[in-house]
Amino acid sequence: MQLDAPSPTRPLRHRLRSAACLLLASGACAGKATAQSGNTQLDTSTLFYTERGRTTVVEPMVRLTRSLSDGQSFSAQLVLDAMTGASPTGATPSKIAQTVTSASGSTSTTEALKVPVSPFRDFRGALDFDWVRPLGLVTPTTSAHVSRERDYRSLGASEVVSIDLMQRLTTLTVGGGYNSDEVTPIGGTPIGLSDGSVRTQGSNSKRVASGTIGLSRVLTRRWLVGVTGTRIAERGYLTEPYKVVSLLDSVGTPSDQLTEKRPESRSRSGIEASSAYHLDQDVVYTTYRYYWDDWGIRSHTLDFKYRHELGSTTYFTPHVRLYAQTQADFFSGGLQQGVPLPTFASADYRLGPLRSGTLGGTFGFHLPKSPGELTLRVEYIHQWGKGDRGDGETGDVEGPSDDHRSSVSSTVTHPTVAPVDIGTVVLGYSVGF
């Protein structure tokens, strides 16, 4: 969104409101922007996501927003996900083929030098509702959410309040939310750090409470900055029921595997600083985010976008994103056989020492003599483990000194956090009427 040039008929707060929404991610801002552009807004998009040799996702989305004359707006959004492919099980790759027998008696074999994966197919549907009701300088946004897939159900609600201060040059945003989720693993819930033969039936509860506070400030006619802090507390079943951890023999060869086990609580925190600067025509967006939790993960995210106006109805926005995280305290590529088991253990690469780089861009345009705006976003993401040197061997990896990877480099030919290439394409269309 362009920050318009100064105009005596359009107050500064209106010119910068869209940028403030990007800084604070406030639903209230979305409602106000829609109210200015028309009575009804239709936004649609389709995401095509693929990980090379792994997962493919197709995600259509439609969002309808109705604005009233008093500034109120009501929004409903439907998202559908069709997911297929294969996901890493967490088992350690090896130079020899691995054959695994599941709890149901079926067997699967992973070729030598390959990352063990498990095929899956799933479908997810999600509904979101928002109600924005301006009350002078205060704008509350009430939201509700429900989603369902084969083994997971989520139901939640949130309330966010934005307060304009200092001639509306400063906006304070505070809010909170609560989710009640149910996890029902297919085939039952395995006991953590076991061979998976004993399983309990029924669902497992998971509760998520979140809070946020943000502040944005118009510093000059062209420059707007913001900072947002978040806190999330999770309680209940946080283990991934389909992930495993390899057992390694004395020379480091995977000989068996156990189901993973994670703590039943997790506290997440994050702070994000953002800047939107309007040049003569273009806009520069920069965001930095620091994240930490009580599982030992720390991460840094640097995001850069530059919206370049190609004409009155077209623009191009290149995007660069860099991400780095440390591993969880209980992350391990494998457990030594014959040694007492730890309290918790997971080989899920998402809890490992990750790095990723994103390069892409968004092209927006209007078709001649047609209403609405079309957008095309294409991005390439390369994700790798900190220990991957790109030659199939592992280098130095953060973690405990007794991590098996330092002693089995001759047997394990790929790092637990293997590199992944990801491509995404998003086609979007928005129209007001």
Task: Please tell me about this protein's structure.
6% of the residues lie in helices and 55% in strands. It is mainly β and 433 residues long. The chain has a single domain (12-432), classed as monomeric porin ompg (Porin). Helix 1 runs antiparallel to helix 2. It is globular. The two termini are 19 Å apart. 27% of the residues are buried. The model is unreliable at 1-20, 24-28, 30-37 and 388-415 (pLDDT under 50).
Number of strands: 23
Assign the CATH architecture: Beta Barrel
User: Which CATH class?
Assistant: Mainly Beta
Residue stretches low in confidence (pLDDT < 50, at least 5 long) are: 1-20, 24-28, 30-37, 388-415
Tell me which oligomeric state these chains represent: single chain
The secondary-structure class comes to: mainly beta
List keywords for this structure.
16-stranded antiparallel barrel; disordered N terminus; 55% strand; Porin; mainly beta; 3-stranded mixed β-sheet; globular
